[in-house]
Amino acid sequence: MNAFEGVPNLKTSRRGFLGLLGFAVITPVLASCTTAAGSGNTAASGPVGIPDGVLPNYVPVEYVAPDIPGVDGSTPGFLEWPKLVKSVDKVPGVGGSYTAMTPTYGNVVPGLSDSKYLQQVNEEIGAKFDFRFTDNNAYPDKLQAIFASAKDVPDFVTIAEHNIPARFDQALPGLFQDMGEYLSGDKVEKYPNLANIPTNAWRSCVFEGKLYGLPYPSDRMSGASFYRKDLFDEMGITEMPKNAQDFFDLTVEITDEKAGRWAGNDLSETAKLIYAVPPKWKLESGELVHKYESDEYRGYLEFAAKLFAAGVIHPDAVAGNSGENKARFESGKVLLTYDGYSGWIGSHVRTVPTTPTYNQQPLPWFVHDGSTPRFFVSNPAKIMTFVKKQEDPTRMDEILDLLNYIAAPFGTTEQALLQNGFEGVHWEADPTTGAPVKTELGLKEVASTYQWLVRPPVTQSAPQYPDLVTDYCNFMADSMQYGVEPEFYGMQILEPVRLASLSQPFNDLESDIVRGRKSLDDLDAAVATWKSSGGDELREFYAGYLDV
């Protein structure tokens, strides 16, 4: 081979970390690594746990104390722009040149030849990074292209968990660096900013019992249902729903077609939260039950269909136009929406300058039957970066120093530089808060680049909106009492390739049932087909990873 429940106590006991679920494409590089024991066409021979000492030690460091500390992993908040602290006492680079493939979301930023930001940061850190930016929607195709030949693989490759190819675990040993050789156990303590990354995030980077990835830590919560509190107040609505019927009644009450106002965008994701639909599997009486077979999934579909049938969903959302979800919500055409938790700040910053009374708030947690709320926490790191094997060992020394620099947390000069660029060029200090305000060039050039390679622990800061940061962090901290870790939390499991597409028919079926084009009888038929086509076999495959 040449290359390549109101459950306050969150469960942590897991074993069996292998590969990732990804698209079932066999590229030449990946196919060349196929072995009889792990071809991806049959179940793996057995689960492989994380051996002792593989995970880096967690040695937290606090350069600047948060105003709102995290609770059980919730995001800490900073209400003021801090006095910055230097965390790295030397220029990390020694003149090396590196290529890096990373995704972009939204506007694509200029490449190295056209970016003062990249040029100046490269000069500051003493190394040349040439980023190959690719729009997230085109990323899977780009991965196929680079994995077709080992020589085309960049020095750093950033991959979201849903984009990792089949058989990727088999390509790792020949193509990418085992980072455990440098970071496992107490070795990481040579790099304090890397040691500051929580253990759970590193778990997501373990494949075949070895530490291959560098984590991009995630918020503990990925999404929530939001409402326009300012408009609710105008309407005299103060009671928040406590069960599914309350929520349905609320949507009917606030819908007024004559006024051009509907209850919400497509509220299917909200319905999933209300019915606490498991991400994939749940353990019931000692047996694995897939979400498609669960009462929660069935209840969610029935309830979402009821909302659509009641006419409370904006017509454009009914038609599937999700691109305008934020605009409809921010303009008040809908008063309820589901959004990623991180989008809360963005909507506020975007809307308040023209609508000073704008007040977006998350709905308090509740479940359909009014029992103790619960939600499933997010994976600790949904995005990872892999380092291509380096022929020159001195380059790995430089890479590790660079990664330690890039992992500098909030409150450090290093993080401020990577996040904002250079004062007077990419930002100016706000006269009131002292926080960076990007210039026109900063808005054009500065985006997530270097920190795709490795991300420090998540924090939240918006000094111009301290009340918003307070609401954000307090809601997350309070929510942790309801957080439940799903089965196989943080585990990287590569499904057999021939079973990887079993879920595909349900994507269209969900939409058809929710919009009244099909019924729950069609769900029953689809589940029966799923089971006979490999679902039961998939259940047995996953059962091998249970620690029961």
Walkthrough of the structure:
With 548 residues, this protein is of the alpha/beta class. 33% of the residues lie in helices and 14% in strands. It is built from 20 helices and 19 strands. The chain has helices at residues 28-31, 116-125, 139-147, 168-175, 180-183, 192-195, 199-203, 229-234, 244-254, 268-274, 295-309, 315-318, 325-331, 343-351, 393-406, 413-420, 440-445, 466-479, 504-514, 520-543, and strands at residues 77-78, 97-104, 128-135, 156-160, 206-207, 210-211, 213-217, 223-228, 262-264, 281-284, 287-290, 334-340, 360-362, 375-376, 381-387, 427-429, 436-438, 460-461, 483-484. Strands 3-2-4-15-7 form a five-stranded mixed sheet. A hairpin with a 2-residue loop joins strand 5 and strand 6 (210-211). Helix 19 (504-514) packs antiparallel against helix 20 (520-543). Residues 1-28 and 31-48 have low confidence and may be disordered.
